[in-house]
Amino acid sequence: MTKNQNWKRLAAAGIASLTVFGSSLAAQDELPSREEMWAIIQKQQEQINALLERVDTTETKLVETEQEIEVTAGKVETTASFVEGYVSSGAASGGSASAAERTHLGGYGELHYNFGKADSADFHRWVLFLDHAFNDDIRFVSEVELEHSIAGDGQPGEIELEQAYVEFDLNDTDTAKAGIFLVPVGILNETHEPATFYGVERNNVEKNIIPTTWWEGGVAYRHTNDSGWAFDAAAHTGLFAPTSGSKAFNIRSGRQKVGSAEASDGAITTRATYSGTPGLQVGFSAQYQTDIAQGTLAESIDATLVSAHADYQRGGFGLRALYARWDLGGAAPGINGADEQFGYYIEPSYRFATEAGDVGFFARYSVYDNYAGSASNTEDAFFDIGMNYWPIENVVFKWDVQFTDYANSAKDEEIINIGVGYHF
Amino acid sequence: MNLNTPRLTSLALAAAMAFAYSTFGDTPDEEVYLAPESFVAESFDGASPKPSVLWITNELKPDIQKILGHDYPALRVRYWKDKERTAWILEEIGKVKPITVGIVVEDGRITRLKVLIYRESHGWEVKHSFFTNQFTDAELTEKLRLNKNIDGISGATLSVNALKRLGRLALFLHQQALR
């Protein structure tokens, strides 16, 4: 049975019952007449039609509102994307920010107090980095350092340009640079922000044997690979060691700092490092220089440096170890024993997190000798113990005690060092 | 062996320039290891779901600041979601430039973390899986830290820290997206 038929039957039944109802109504005079009833029905029909119209309008409005919301959401999305693009492209400040964003300022510094036979306070280093990326592949890197706070005639400090080079990314794995750069050797020479190492003062081995901070001018090349190996090769200016006096052939005294440096005899440095296991880095460096007297003696004083280091951090446990050794040729360095110079240290440490920042403890045993070729005992040894406290990762407070064991025991002392350092 | 500096330097410079000239022409602007779209597709077995958007509301800002140490530099984060699995493409500055990282989180733990675009000249080790594999199974603690130790890389502390922050951020955003 169709719906239509159903309706017809219902209607027929309805009419029949209305007729019955109607005849009974007719008997009651107080009820509305058929005409009046018809008028009521017509009026109700009008009201129903009016209501239907309003429902229709409301539905249309609802659909329109939904569409409007959709359009608004789209607009918000577009605006958000635009603002993000605008901000990140630097267009927000008239396009000049993009150039400014490619120039980066950074720096680090450290203030030290040393209490030993003589007490001293020293703002040891104040360093400013200025880098500029010409594009994603070519960048300029520089580092200017003010040492010991005051520079000038008769003042303790100096202003030094420690790095200034242009670096080129040749591909994903190879980079080349030219200019003044830090010699790729040891642990501290290239990475020496105060928060990255233990002890207020840098260790004596890297200071007197490597000799950190050591920079030269020249060209360098680096290749890295997926297994965690990196290879460096650099051709650069060399040391110019004094050839007489108490510092004859002392390595640290040979640093020219690329200031109108004597450059008749250069050096080649190579390094291999492996950091393919998280927390571990091992490195090997070798350097050869034809004449660290730079042609000022009748003979050539060729010099070879070999060094190896390991830097291991697992959980809170850390271990750093380094060995470095120089061999000088010619007859002159043999006179005071400077033909052989070496040093080593081992430094276990433990670092842990607290609510208020990280705390680390360390101990270090170090030995170095700039005159190891001499018959007498010229070896100096040091034992350090102390702690670092990092309230945040860029700021460190340090405290340590150093016990000395000089070859000349009259120099022995205990030194308490306190320091604060930062980098950004 | 006659190793005088001028000769050596000019020779090396010439070699470097020749090499640079021959390689620079078609070098891409940045080192893209895996396009973000490919990362997302890979993370959902080839069928990327439609991206969703999580707005960084004022309610989320304090926790994000606690994780990053600064505000997230966008109004909203796009992500991809399929059941309990979400994928995120996030950026954070290492030393100077942003590192783009893809992170997949499932049931509140990191199942995959991959460096997609690396722009820094230092800390290259963090790009490699021997480092990023450490993040697998890391979860977020109540204090918004990772529940496992990530061993660092000597000389690459800033890049390592940037990746740790992004790992925490992805876990936090995952919680918000599934709320």
Structure description:
Chain A: Residues 1-26 form the signal peptide. The complex is a heterodimer of chains A (424) and B (179). The longest helix of chain A is centred in the N-terminal third of the chain and has 56 residues, at 34-89. Chain A has 424 residues and is an alpha+beta fold. A 16-stranded antiparallel barrel of chain A has the order 1-2-3-4-5-6-7-8-9-10-11-12-13-14-15-16. In chain A, 21% of the residues lie in helices and 43% in strands. Chain B is of the alpha+beta class. Helix content of chain B is 34%, strand content 23%. In chain B, helix 3 packs antiparallel against helix 5 (157-177). At the A-B interface, helix 2, strand 4, strand 5, strand 6 and strand 7 of A face helix 1 of B.
What is the total tally of β strands of chain A?
Answer: 16
Radius of gyration of chain B: 20 Å
How far do the termini of chain A sit from each other?
86 Å
Strand order of the largest sheet of chain A: 1-2-3-4-5-6-7-8-9-10-11-12-13-14-15-16
How many β-strand runs of chain B?
6
Shape of chain B: elongated
Residue ranges of chain A: pLDDT <50 for 5 or more in a row?
89-97
**SSE succession of chain B:** HEHEHEEEEHH
Query: Count of DSSP helices of chain B?
Result: 5
Termini distance of chain B? 72 Å
What pair of chains forms the biggest interface? A-B, 60 and 45 residues
Strand count, sense and barrel status of the largest sheet of chain A are: 16 strands, antiparallel, barrel
User: H/E element string of chain A?
Assistant: HHHEEEEEHEEEEEEEEEEE
How helix-rich are the residues of chain A, as a percent range?
A: 10-25%
Average pLDDT number of chain B: 84
**For the largest beta sheet of chain B, what order do the strands appear in spatially?**
1-6-5-4-3-2
Fraction in beta strands of chain A? 35-45%
Measured on Cα atoms, how large is the radius of gyration of chain A?
A: 42 Å
- How big a fraction of the residues of chain B is strand? 15-25%
Number of alpha- plus pi-helical segments of chain A? 4
Tell me, what's the shape of chain A?
elongated
